[in-house]
Structure prediction request, 142 residues.
Amino acid sequence: MRRYFKQLGLCLLALGMCILFTQCEKDQLPNKENDGMMMGNVTNDGGDTNSSLPVVSTNNVTNITSSSAYCGGNVTSDGGSTVTTRGVCWGTSQNPTVNNSRTSNGSGTGSFNATINGLMSGTTYYVRAYATNSYGTSYGAQ
Prediction:
C-alpha cells in the first residue's frame, strides 16, 4: 500500500511540474492592429520598453468630388521602429483597415497627402490614416 501512495505521489509531483512549466511562457506582444488608440509600451525580447506602434493622425478630407477626395495624415512617432508604409484607408463601414481600400504614401515619419479615387457618388465613406512598423499597424481617428 505504501508503494502505491509513493508512486501516486511521484506521479502527482511530475504532473504538477508539467503544469508549472507549460504555464511559463514568454510575454507576447499585444494585438498588432490598433483601432486608433495608442497602446502602451511594448516590451520586446531584448527588454526595450520604448518600442510600440507608430502614432498617426488623420487630416481632414477635402476636395470631394463625385469619384475622388483628398486626404492625408501625419506620423508623429515611429514607435521605436521604422515606419515601412503609411497612407489612408477607406470603406463604407466604420473603422476601415488596411484590408479595405488604401493608398500607400511612402514611409517614415512626417506629413503625407493622398488622393482617394474610385469613389461612388451618393455613398458615405469612412477614412483614416494608417502607419505600419515592425510591431504592427496603427490608425488615426476616423
